[in-house]
Amino acid sequence: MRLLRHLFARSARSLFPEDSLHRIADAIAAGERRHTGEVMFAVESELTLGQLLRKVQARDRAMDAFARLRAWDTEANNGVLVYLLLADHRIEIVADRGLSGKVSAEQWRGVCQLMEERLQAGEPEAAAIRGVDAVADLLAAHFPQNGDGPDIDELPNLPRILD
């Protein structure tokens, strides 16, 4: 069944056209004006046959994307990746070690549930924006902007479609 879902997965580019990616990037930038963390959003349509045969899971892909996209490469170790694997209908959030002990697994799960509601309603862009807004709320609670000057944007805000 999983193989069929991946063979016939909807294209991430069809669900997230260029103008949608820019609106999500705007939401990430707006959130980052409230905190000093860094948020990234990445979406992947499906896994390859080899990955499926090796039983690669969405969490594994999210961890790989976190590393490949260098979401860990922030001065305060407070980068967060929101990852969506369309074929598996999975949302994964990977947070850098600076958030360890600050945000609980239940809070991250709450972000995923907000996104799942919008995805089930057929609103992928709204799901992404709702997710990055909720992540921004959590980051603002632990890494608020202090007003000492402009925050350096350490990671790109434009979402990544992983091929």
From TrEMBL:
Residue intervals of the TPM domain: 15-137
Protein's name in the database: TPM domain-containing protein
Species assigned in the record: Pseudoxanthomonas helianthi
